[in-house]
Write a structure and sequence with these properties.
This protein has 235 residues and is α/β, with parallel strands linked by helices. It has eight helices and nine strands. The structure holds NADPH dihydro-nicotinamide-adenine-dinucleotide phosphate (NDP) and the ligand O=C(O)C1=N[C@H](C(=O)O)C[C@H](O)C1.
Length: 235
């Protein structure tokens, strides 16, 4: 992803690549290069330190790295409180179709008694469930709560550990890791006599680049913390 982002930012007519930072590089290279925006595509263990450095140095940040939970977002908010002019955009997924599919799932949520998420990724992925699946589960849970829906029906009383997936805000999420895949997700809804499946597939990491560029262009105009690309897409 980092290599693809470097290529995309370098090739776009209205953005300039001033630095490409690897694990062994000092982050001060961003400052000396005069970076206005940094894009973090690293690892859940590294991302927070990177964001903190950028915020403290007045550099806007686009975070593509997944695995940030509520506590991490709160931490970023607290750093931003000291630098209110800085923007941090956390994007669970940069692919336009994936952003739309999350929104579609949010819209559908209140009409269906049952919902489960299956996310499918390449086996080099560090975090499970995926950031996209966690975010999708959260927006679905929020929509269900607002509509007054109760718990998803499930009579399971005897199970092998993990058989029913992870519980994210009351929504079951199942993670598949498989060679040959890039990133896919299915949100399955069910009610009496019908089901609805919302599926998105990224077949190539280039699918994420329009969203990366959009985020780079806009993050500076959005001080504070923004989660997701919805507002940038006007949805
Ligand atoms: N928001 C979105 O749309 C998308 C988000 N992602 C997320 O982006 C992140 C990167 O994905 P991907 O490119 O596939 O992963 P890779 O493992 O291919 O690349 C991660 C890079 O981060 C570096 N890195 C790992 N750990 C550290 C560390 N502790 N400090 C500094 N650098 C580190 C790695 O260096 P080294 O090689 O030396 O380990 C590598 O260069 C993941 O969190 C993934 O989930 C991915 C696709 C889309
Ligand atoms: O690691 C990946 O590949 C991806 N990570 C993000 C996530 O965790 O949702 C976005 C996309 O699914 C690809």
């Amino acid at each position: 992803m980092g290599s693809e982002a470097v290529r995309a930012v370098g090739e776009a007519a209205d953005t300039e690549l001033v630095a490409a930072i690897n694990r062994e590089d000092d982050l001060s290279g961003l400052v000396s290069a005069g970076a206005q925006v940094a894009v973090d595509l690293t690892h859940p263990d590294a991302v927070l330190d990177n964001v903190r450095f950028c915020v403290e140095h007045g550099i806007h940040v686009v975070v593509g790295t997944s695995g940030l939970g509520a506590a991490e977002l709160e931490q970023i908010r607290s750093w931003l409180a000291e630098r209110p002019e800085v923007g941090v955009l956390v994007a669970p997924n940069f692919a336009i179709g994936a952003v739309l599919s999350m929104r579609f799932a949010e819209l559908a949520a209140k009409f269906f008694e049952s919902v489960e998420i299956v996310e499918l990724h390449h086996p080099k992925k560090a975090d499970a469930p995926s950031g996209t699946a966690a975010r999708t589960a959260q927006v679905i849970a929020q929509a269900r709560a607002e509509a007054g829906l109760g718990e998803v029906p499930d009579a399971t009383t005897k199970e092998l550990d993990g058989a029913r997936g992870a519980d994210v805000d009351g929504v079951r999420v199942h993670s598949v890791r498989m060679t040959g895949l890039v990133a896919s997700q299915e949100v399955l809804f069910g009610t009496e006599g019908e089901t609805l499946t919302i599926r998105h597939d990224s077949f190539d990491r280039r699918s994420f680049m329009p969203g990366v560029l959009l985020s780079v262009r806009e993050v500076g105009d959005r001080p504070g913390l923004t989660v997701g690309l919805d507002a940038l897409l006007g949805i």
